[in-house]
Design brief:
2 copies of one chain form a homodimer. Chain A is 32% helix and 27% strand. The interface between A and B is large, with 41 and 40 residues. Strand 7 of chain A pairs antiparallel with strand 7 of chain B. The structure holds a DNA duplex (25 and 25 nucleotides).
Chain lengths: 150, 150
DNA sequence: GTGATTGCAAATCTTTTGCACTAAA
DNA sequence: TTTAGTGCAAAAGATTTGCAATCAC
């Protein structure tokens, strides 16, 4: 049954489960075998607009859409995707890890009320002045989190 | 560093356990009883320059300096101090909570190599443009983390 | 077949909680 | 006293890991 989902040419069957040629390409580019689990998760992650998910949330989503994946595999997959640049990790909450499908340079709103994340439009924020990296280091990344409350 | 005063009513027991006038004031201002544990932890936290600590690290430090405090109490104390504005929480690492003795408005370097935090001098960074808070929310705080490697 | 991937359960790690005991006011 | 604060051990989450079974190539 996973066949229909595995093929880029398969036609749409259920909403949200349409196979994407892009998903296969992404996995191939990352050097990851297109397993049933990875395809299903990639499809959920990259099907629409940019998303911010936790492992738990993605696991639930997979379950709801009828995909059988263990939580351990969801964790593994999210980290593999992150390592190969398909995802980006966002740290806003100690104790929970968020993964962002938008890997471009951008920043976030964090809604303290419900623990939701949203991208900040790239041109609505700007850093006027950056300090130099401390001696012997280089800037790996700059994260701006705007915490908003109800 | 001239803040080391003997408190008249304190009973000198072990070295490094002399109370600071400032520490007593801080606790009083926060409405927290000056217990042996809170005094000891406050002394470690506020004795010198600004610090960034985790509960575990502070607990170890207390142990080394001969103060007997349970880890649970360290957690409780750090949260009480945070709630009363004596400390600030910094989120840079999912899975670990850092507390900052500098409660003024400032940002951080995070050294990925060793998980260390450092304050960024206030005037060496500036946000040129901030987005508006999404409808129905207000900006509670803006955090900038510059992650440095190597 | 062979090596990569998965699932499950157990293990880890950090943090919180329940509750009897201790200490400040 | 009276009530806040503490310690301990157990509980709770989130995440990782070990290993046998399964799957992709």
């Amino acid at each position: 049954m996973s066949q229909i989902f595995d093929r880029p040419t398969a036609r749409p069957t259920q909403p949200g489960l349409r196979p994407f040629a892009g998903v296969l390409q992404k996995l191939a580019a990352a050097g990851l075998r297109p397993t049933r689990q990875r395809l299903a998760l990639a499809r959920l992650l990259f099907a629409g607009t940019d998303r911010h998910v936790t492992a738990e949330a993605l696991h639930d989503e997979a379950e709801v859409s009828g995909v059988r994946v263990s939580l351990a595999t969801v964790y593994n997959t999210l980290h593999q995707f992150t390592a190969s640049g398909l995802l980006r990790e966002v740290v806003v909450d100690s104790g929970r890890t968020y993964f962002d499908t938008n890997t471009s340079d951008h920043h976030h709103f964090f809604f303290e009320a419900d623990g939701r994340l949203a991208d900040i439009p790239g041109d609505s924020i700007a850093l006027a002045r950056l300090p130099e990296a401390p001696a012997g280091t280089r800037i790996a990344r700059v994260d701006v989190i705007i915490r908003v409350a109800g």
